[in-house]
Amino acid sequence: MRFDLTDLRLFLAVVDAGSITHGAADLGLSLPAASERLRDMEANGGVQLLERGRRGVSPTPAGEALAHHARLIQRQLTQMRGELGEHASGLRTTVRLLANTAAIVEYLPPRLAEWMARNPQTDIDLKERQSIEIARAVSAGLAEIGILSDAADTSGLTLRPFAIDRLVVVISSDHALAAAKQIAFAEILHEHFVGLAGGALQDHIDAQAARLGSRLKMRVRMRTFEAICHMAGQGIGLGIVPETAARRCGRSAKVAALRLTDPWAARRLSLCARSLEDLPSPARDLFEHLAAI
Fold this sequence. Notes:
Elements: H1 5-17, H2 20-26, H3 31-45, E1 50-53, E2 56-59, H4 61-87, E3 93-99, H5 101-118, E4 122-128, H6 131-139, E5 145-149, E6 158-172, E7 182-183, E8 192-196, H7 200-211, E9 217-222, H8 225-233, E10 239-242, H9 243-253, E11 255-260, E12 266-273, H10 281-292
Parallel strand pairs: 3-4, 3-5, 7-11, 8-9
Antiparallel strand pairs: 1-2, 5-12, 6-10, 6-11, 6-12
């Protein structure tokens, strides 16, 4: 039974995402290449590692055993990189950072820019993921640092406060609901919406609608919060964006902002890492920088 490091990283990514497609994307592999690697792993080992179904994949008992040992190997590799990094001089390093939509768009850029300007030899591999996926990936050693909401299970992770992210409904200032200060999500599910063109935040909002037995009536999807605010201001539909984004573009977009009263709409964002002691020096320094602001 012979597996290389890419095989093990791919297998962990697939198990943690519950999807071959998402696992392949995490490693920058095409779906056909990832699927072939997984088939070869099962063929070489003579054992089924994954149960494949309509809703994704899950590990078999043999797959659970492989995932356990793969995580141990990932941790040892992280420790090795950290120790070697202490002795390296002038070499470029990369810190793997996962964050949700609000953190990437609203809070991270100025903090990250300041640190990267002081550390020109360090690159950041930044990817957007849902908070639950971030917690799993950091636990498995697929990323050094995560920024996630309190909706995720962070057992076993080191946490530091990062920001408070409040979601609001942006609505045309002449809409019948514009005078309200706050509103429950269930009260607006009959309305038409302007949403994000993919991303962790939109997935989160869609999931909340599904829990209420509904599906958002989406008129159009945009790529930025500013674009959503502009469309909402023109009466195209309601949008849901971070409160910071609504404040920033409220005047120019002519929108009113209503706070959502649902508990899931007020999220505490936290930095997370598996262990600060095991982080390579650049990642540990970045973590402390982001936590100090």
